[in-house]
Amino acid sequence: MALNSIYNEILNEHNIRPTHKGEMADPTITMDGKNPSCGDEITIQLKVGEDGIIEDGCFTGSGCAISQASVDMMLDLIIGESKERALKLYDIFMGMIKGTASEEEIEELDEAMALKDISHMPARVKCAVLGWRTLDAMFKE
Amino acid sequence: MNINNPYRKDFPIFRDFPAAYLDSAATAQRPDCVIEAEKRFYETMNANPLRGLYRLSMEATEAYEDARESAAGLIGAKSPAEIVFTRNSTEALNLVAYSYALTFLKEGDEIVTTVMEHHSNLLPWQMAAQRTGAVLKFLEPLPDGTLPEEEIDRKITEKTRLVAVGHISNVLGIENPVRLLAQKAHAAGAVIVIDAAQSVPHIPVDVQELDADFLVFSGHKLMAPFGIGVLYGKEALLEKMPPFLRGGEMIESVSLTEATFAELPHKFEAGTVNAAGAYGLKAAIEYLQGVGYQAVREIEDNLTALLMEGLKELPYVHIQGSEDPKKHNGIVSFTMDGAHPHDISSILDGFDINIRAGHHCAEPLMRFLGVGSTARASLYLYNTKGDVERLLEGLPKVRETLGLDRV
Ligand SMILES: Cc1ncc(COP(=O)(O)O)c(C=O)c1O
Questions:
Q1: Distance from first CA to last CA of chain A, Å, rounded?
Q2: B398 lines ligand 1 (CB under 6 A)
Q3: Residues A40, A61: contact at Cβ < 8 Å?
Q4: What is d(CA A101, CA A103) in angstroms, rounded to the nearest whole number?
Q5: I want to staple B387 with a disulfide (CB 3.0 to 4.6 A). Which of B20, B37, B68, B223 is the partner?
Q6: Which ligand 1 atom is at minimum distance from the Cα of B360?
Q7: A47 close to A55: Cβ distance less than 8 angstroms
Q8: pLDDT per residue as tens digits for the range A32-42
């Protein structure tokens, strides 16, 4: 793998033109996530309906391209899904990075598959998982 | 690429290492003579120094004490008794904070430092202030990094008991006016602690000329092995300070309930010492003196000028600190529009260019500069024009890799 292949078009697009960057007026859950060692910081807001469906989501924050694009891709995936499905996707994403997820499972991650090779850049794994860790913390509260 | 640098061949890592190494402010590369010295110690002199009464141990002791003389000579200490070996600058600064500051500072006293310190020259003073009730005050530089005299006069007062300042900033590369600060500190009745981690490897430092009370540096930034550092302290001050760590090697006599302590500098060197590291440090000092600070300065100034000129041609790059390459001492921090420093460093690594990215253990300075983090290239005597050119050619590739030019 070429070292810089992680910065592919999908990731760059989400970094430069994030779809979900911004704030919403009426979130049902808000959560901060931070990587103290590198200073990446995000705040995720979600609007979850009575039925447990994630109706909308957005994020603010600053950090490297990998952390910011990864949150944006994650929100793409989970908006419209149930909490349970979102947590399942969390498990698959983590599994993809650890190398334990199957090809079929990884397919379910859609564009977030673009981060598959992050496992070859150990120093950057924490950037890729920042959004997902924050999501997990939101639902476990 | 090596033709115009006669020293590069002395560094084994460059023999089959493809990268442009531009992170010497973090740690320097080691020349053959240092690596061989450490090896020689273990092969021919290894025994626990300062303990055994047999020849091998005495030889180890001699090697260790020779290194102390060599360090004393490098910075102009009056006597080797004023040189305490530590693991690094951080440990040396903690030694002064725990032993000197906790003993001699009290509530209402003031400690003056700057907003541009490395965390290692900030956290020990935060601790000392919390425990003694002393107040911490911070000198703020102008945008180019200079500390104006009026600012110094405003902050150093008759209440100041300790001034702790970095000689050269590890982010901006700027040299602080430590001689002036020492004069002002002494006039106020305070001691000055100089963090010389970034200066001793690059510029001549003389503790007499600076009138330093305490001064610290790390061997590893000066091409010595990891794990050996130096605390210089004026003898009269070290004499009246209590030990920092207690145990073997630092005693005169011990009973079940009390102990008296060894003479300087052994009072501050508890436990088995890093004799091989010290021996390596001596080799590094000799190597540096052989090259000469003048030559180091020339290489660094030329390359810094080349680097800064090149960076200025990239409209999306912003250099932190002074416009004048001579004020950077081989350290250039910068930011790039649209690119986070971690991405810059990661992507450059893909092109075999090694630079540092992050807050450089100086978070308060990042906040002061209004940046979250920076990328930093830092030079040393083995760097070449080729290294700088590779970085300058690499930066447009960073933008390309991030897709920024297609926006
Ligand atoms: C200015 C300054 N002070 C202190 C230190 C700490 O040095 P060490 O990690 O060797 O203790 C460094 C190096 O990182 C530094 O640049």
A1: 38
A2: no
A3: yes
A4: 7
A5: B20
A6: 14
A7: yes
A8: 999 887 778 99
- Are B153 and B396 spatial neighbours (Cβ–Cβ below 8 Å)? no
Tell me how far apart the 2 most distant CA atoms of chain A are, in Å: 46
DSSP-derived 3-state class of residue A109: coil
Whether B329 is in the pocket of ligand 1, judged by its Cβ within 6 Å, is no
Judge whether A117 and A5 are in contact, CB under 8 Å. yes
Structural domain boundaries enclosing A115: 3-140
CATH number for the B34-289 domain, one of 2.40.440.10, 3.40.190.10, 3.40.640.10, 4.10.520.10?
Answer: 3.40.640.10
Structure tokens at B155: 């902050």
Domain ranges of chain B: 8-22+292-402, 34-289
Q: What interface predicted TM-score (ipTM) does this complex get?
A: 0.90
Whose structure tokens read 């260790």? B64
Burial status of residue B385 (CB atoms within 10 A of its CB: 0-12, 13-18, 19 or more): middle
CATH number of the domain enclosing A60: 3.90.1010.10
Global pTM reads 0.94
Q: Which residues of chain B have pLDDT under 50?
A: 1-2
Strands B214-218 and B160-166, bridge-based pairing: unpaired
Q: Which fold has domain B8-22+292-402?
A: Aspartate Aminotransferase, domain 1 (3.90.1150)
How many domains is chain A partitioned into structurally? 1
Tell whether the torsion through CA atoms of B95, B98, B103 and B104 is positive or negative.
Answer: positive
Contacts of B349 in chain A (CB under 8 A): 3
Residue of B nearest to A118 (CA): B346
For tokens 């909308």, what's the residue? A56
